[in-house]
């Protein structure tokens, strides 16, 4: 009863060690850094692509991605990437993981 009040969580928050393990165990996983281009240039996880959550074209860029791949998403602290993961899950992405604590914990 009242299930409509529950929000379905369609992504998973994972620890830094689990995030690193997923990178090494899933060579086809896509690593997405949702920070600004300047933040990305200052340091990023190897092989990450930069899709800034605050960019006006964020939704269009995400829509171009294949929905059944594994996506490992991060930002500085985990807040923006959590929003990005929720957006991706709400739009049909099946395997989305957020780095808890963000790049600061990596």
TrEMBL record:
Pfam family, one: Rhodanese
Signal peptide positions on this chain: none
Domain Rhodanese: 25-106
Superkingdom classification of source: Bacteria
Gene3D superfamilies: Rhodanese-like domain (3.40.250.10)
Name of the featured protein: Rhodanese-like domain-containing protein
